[in-house]
Amino acid sequence: MSNNSFLRNRISLTMLPLAGLLAVLGLLLRGPFGNPSTNPSAFAQAAASPNFGTAWVIILLGSVVRIYSLMVLFAILAQTRAARWVFWALLFSFVSEALFLSLTGILAFATPVAAKLYLQGDAGLINVLKAGFFSGPGLALLYPSGLIGTLGSILFSIAIYRSNLPLWAGILYALTTPLLAFAPAFSYILELLGGVLLLVSGTWIAVAVWRHQPASETTSRTGQPSLMGQA
After folding, report:
1. How many domains does the chain have?
2. Which pTM value belongs to this model?
3. Could you tell me how far CA 67 lies from the centroid of its own chain?
4. In terms of residue numbers, what domain contains 7?
């Protein structure tokens, strides 16, 4: 990888903490995520508020930014001994984010409309959401997306460790997807923690890459040239 290419990748890697920042902002704006199956009125009140749709648009943008940042991280880590790990990490993460984006679009654009109509007396659309998103097809995408994304995050953390980047940055990154994917069902605090960990780990990884010089003679923990020696 040329020095100019490595510099461009380092600049582009700032998108990883940006993805975490958007996740945190979106979750704070949205608040706890209710379930229309247990309390449709409370869910409709929350979903009909201006913040709900805006929050999910921000979360959606965060996912798009995260996809781009993972491509950049792949380009950097693929130059190291961790190449075989990062290939599968990117593949699983892509599949997970693609499945999640399809569900996020429903929450960002369709759910607020259905909630407003429910509050106006049309209860049928909330039932459609319950049947389509909170059970059946929606869950058939949501849980596999979370499991696949968790595997991708773990593989990325292994690749980060093997490339001589900070071990704990990789560990924190590995925790982001399971918290963001599964915590909403039982804990808003843990879901928010997932966004915070994405922001912290993304910033840590970006800073660690920035601090290395492309021509430095460093070696990875495996005894092979690190990403800095390969630049």
Report:
1. 1
2. 0.84
3. 8
4. 3-230
